[in-house]
Amino acid sequence: xxxxxxxLRIAIVGGGIGGMAAAGFLHQAGLTxxxxxxxxxxxxxxxGLVAAPNAVRLLRALGIAEPALSRAVPLDWGWxxxxxxxxxxxxxxxxxxxxxxxxGERTYTIHRAHLLDALRSxxxxxxxxxxxxxxxxxxxxxxxxxxxxxxxxxxxDVVIGADxxxxxxxxxxxxxxxxxxxxxxxFRTVVxxxxxxxxxxxxxxxxxxxxxxxxxxxxxxxGREVNVVAxxxxxxxxxxxxxxxxxxxxxxxxxxxxxxxxxxxxxAGSAPGRWALLDRPPLPRWSHGGxxxxxxxxxxxxxxxxxxxxxxMEDAAVLARCLSATPEDPPYALTRYEAARIDRTTRLQQAxxxxxxxxxxxxxxxxxxxxxSLADADPLVRSGWIYGYDATAVSV
Length: 396
Hints:
This protein is an alpha/beta fold and 396 residues long.
């Protein structure tokens, strides 16, 4: 056990949303943490995400709600589910007042890069080490030693793996396995508002459901752009990469026969990104000694609940609370962190996985039953277990 008066050395591997949120909450708690990011510059590829109340309250807790949300779009019109063929509304929910009334915060759409900028603003410059590709994490003394591609190394009492689906740190706490191919690929593009159909500019997240596919769009960047992401069966050449590209013609062909508003939006975008969706089963544990995981490194989930970034931020807030409570005993703090988070994230992993099947039902009895259930359900209330969670107050 460490002396409480000795400064805890914390290393975070990965400078994305989860890693920066962890650094921000740890520094807010008075703990020193260094982010080791392999990229030469901090950028967030991809495009938009939904910031639901459970994420927004964490932005507020960090004191960055105003700068982050100044470039976001409040979803006043809320959520819509539509039928693929003709745009029939299956379910719609206004969020302008109900969301804040139920959960104390509104729901927004935000560009990933803008969220990362806001998180970066609360992390000291000296605490971020760029161009630092971690190649190994090994137990060393009472902590761990990190090795980097440039030949340098660093010792830490706590190592936090925030390095995503292909996490290197994960190998130090779990049996090495390859992620499974989920049989789906995602197309993503951003459409300038000036080129987008008026239908897509409304402050709403719209999901079109069809056989084997679904199509999502919502405005981001203060309404100056429309984020488009769509899911379809993946062929043999699908690649799990943010930088893999496709041709607009390929994207449009996947949604041939769909409502013309869908194809209009596809045509308005530039060449889309395309990547394969990978899957991992929930881990039975995230931590070993002074090494732990966070976000996608711990619990990668399909994006069908829009909770990936939010869960990484929740992890960060709870982890900081646990480490600040018992800095003299990092393994105990990490055990408390894992116990507080693993059931919730496992449930979300499983729910997101199930939605991949539900969203893609072929036309027929099961599809009609799903559509009826969408019309009858209140998704805002039904998802209270997600949006009502407060990571700054949950028992640890």
